[in-house]
Recover the amino acids of this structure.
């Protein structure tokens, strides 16, 4: 892992204390996940310099933005960042076109026009250029806000719950754009959210926060499958796999996708062979067997190794498994775990009853 | 009809009001910005000082200005020392006293407009590479356009309409410090009711038109809120 974002902050106001020490990857989407009051937005604001932590160090790609020991604090407007607020925060006195140009006009190094046109296309806002922000829908406004931050070609993009103020259909309007951004632009994104759905869809890397502290960090799939974290015990616990399309079985209306541990059957996906996609597998949809049963309606049966088992006090076991290079969670009863004599390192088979596609 | 003396007072009034309004906008804007943004413990006391002319009898303000600006007052001694003479009974004195007297009419609408903008556009501008000063000119000023309009119109109109302070600090010197409101008083004292009618009617129509235009153009209620 290339850790070139280093963020250490200490700050307190009233009852709230923020105390974090993070090294984050310099590419992909890092999701800061936690309930409200966990300090994730405060952390993002400290990174942007909108709030100044009393003690802190912040280095982005080797550039120091804050070092309280050396009394360095670069003000926000001198940091090469993009920030997307929860409410779009467009300038209501400027048209969409002028909102996009506001930052561009102030850049020392001009960004080439192709980049700008590309971003306008990517976010599908070219038809809105002459409109005023008050005449846009919530989803359109947020897309303009994202474009306004991106056209500056920042070294890091900070997003503070950019979908939280939108209703669910507007969310679905903006989410695909965010997923495309990740594939097409090479800048690190820090994305604050309390939505598990957004986290599963967008994250490459996960930072779990509560009460101003970091509980866990790591690649999404690995972190989701850690049985020591509360997420794994949740009824909605799941794992997320990045796979690619291997074969279409059109007669059966199925698509085969491949990953390091084998293949999965999915309902037909309209993607070309070789295209990447992300699937989510809920722990409640996974069962464990000791041998391949051919007499079953379940299509997806894969060899796996047991990594960890955690028993709760209401008769349930959370089992973490390795399938190829991927991790998987299964929720089973303790009675079954005992019956199968599940132990760490044991080779088993997992039966996956259902998957959902996140693209 | 209006005499040439009346026209002279009109010209003088216009000059005093224009100059005072410009000064009020120049000094009132940073003051209003500070008052709208600060969490300093001085905020209350500064607010109170700025608002004093709203409640004080103009004669009280005029009296103290005479004392402070006069030959034996602290500022009078300073201006004498600098070779500027004393301010009472001069055009400059008129402008200075008008400035202090009408300042709340400029500061308060601006302060209300600035507060209404809130933090969010300022933070957005900072993330888009705009320095605080740049942000003030490119975001705050356009967003508080109606506040500036209200402040300018009220500051100007209120200066035109003042009487007590200008009479006490300016005196009643033709062509030098005699403004319209004082001239009306002179006409009435001399029982020249027809002349008084022309000037008074003129001021009445002027003030009404100013407020009418103001209330019809300024749609956002925030900056005129304190008038209601």
């Amino acid at each position: 892992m290339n850790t070139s974002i280093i963020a250490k902050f200490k700050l307190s106001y009233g009852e709230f204390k923020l105390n974090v020490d993070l090294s984050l990857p310099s590419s992909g989407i890092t999701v800061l996940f936690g309930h409200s009051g966990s300090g994730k937005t405060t952390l993002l604001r400290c990174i942007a310099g909108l709030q100044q932590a009393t003690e802190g160090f912040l280095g982005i790609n080797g550039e120091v933005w804050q070092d309280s020991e050396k009394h360095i604090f670069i003000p926000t407007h001198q940091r090469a960042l993009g920030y997307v607020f929860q409410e779009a925060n467009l300038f209501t006195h400027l048209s969409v076109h002028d909102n996009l140009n506001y930052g561009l006009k102030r850049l020392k190094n001009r960004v080439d026009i192709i980049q700008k046109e590309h971003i306008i296309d990517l976010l599908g806002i070219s038809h809105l250029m002459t409109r005023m922000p008050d005449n846009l829908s919530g989803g359109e406004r947020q897309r303009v806000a994202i474009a306004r931050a991106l056209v500056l070609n920042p070294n890091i993009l900070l997003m503070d719950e950019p979908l939280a103020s939108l209703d669910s259909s507007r969310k679905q309007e903006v989410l695909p754009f965010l997923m495309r951004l990740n594939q097409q632009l090479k800048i690190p994104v820090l994305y604050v959210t309390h939505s598990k759905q957004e986290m599963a869809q967008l994250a490459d890397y996960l930072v779990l926060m509560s009460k101003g502290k970091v509980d866990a960090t790591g690649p999404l799939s690995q972190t989701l499958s850690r049985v020591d974290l509360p997420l794994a015990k949740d009824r909605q616990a799941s794992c997320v796999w990045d796979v690619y399309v291997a074969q279409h079985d059109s007669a059966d209306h199925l698509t085969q996708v491949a990953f390091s541990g084998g293949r999965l059957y999915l309902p037909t996906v309209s993607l070309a062979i070789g295209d990447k996609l992300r699937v989510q597998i809920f722990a409640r949809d996974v069962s464990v067997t000791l041998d391949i049963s051919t007499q079953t309606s379940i299509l997806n049966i894969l060899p796996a190794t047991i990594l960890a088992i955690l028993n709760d006090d209401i008769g349930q076991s959370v089992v973490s498994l390795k399938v190829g290079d991927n991790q998987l969670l299964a929720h089973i009863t303790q009675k079954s775990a005992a019956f199968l004599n599940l132990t760490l390192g044991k080779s088993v088979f997992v039966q996956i009853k259902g998957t959902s596609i996140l693209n | 009809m209006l005499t040439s003396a009346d026209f002279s007072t009109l010209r003088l009034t216009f000059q005093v009001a224009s100059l005072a309004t410009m000064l009020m906008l120049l000094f009132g804007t940073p003051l209003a910005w500070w008052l709208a943004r600060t969490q300093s413990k001085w905020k209350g006391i500064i607010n109170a000082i700025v608002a004093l002319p709203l409640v004080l009898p103009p004669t009280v303000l005029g009296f103290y200005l005479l004392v402070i600006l006069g030959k034996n007052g602290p500022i009078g001694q300073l201006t004498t020392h600098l070779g500027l003479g004393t301010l009472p009974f001069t055009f400059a004195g008129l402008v200075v006293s008008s400035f202090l007297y009408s300042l709340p009419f400029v500061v308060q609408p601006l302060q209300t407009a600035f507060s209404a903008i809130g933090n969010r556009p300022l933070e957005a501008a900072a993330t888009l590479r705009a320095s605080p000063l740049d942000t003030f000119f490119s975001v705050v000023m356009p967003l508080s356009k109606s506040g500036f309009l209200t402040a300018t119109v009220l500051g100007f109109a209120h200066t035109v309409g003042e009487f007590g302070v200008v009479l006490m600090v300016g005196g009643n010197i033709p062509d030098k410090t005699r403004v319209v409101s004082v001239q009306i008083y002179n006409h009435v004292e001399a029982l020249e009711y027809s002349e008084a009618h022309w000037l008074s009617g003129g001021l009445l129509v002027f003030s009404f038109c100013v407020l009418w235009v103001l209330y019809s153009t300024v749609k956002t209620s925030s900056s005129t809120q304190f008038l209601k």
User: Anything to note?
Assistant: The CA atoms of residues 305 and 347 of chain A lie 5 Å apart. Chain A is about 25% helix and 40% strand. Chain A has two domains: 3-221, 238-357. Chain A has a mean pLDDT of 90.
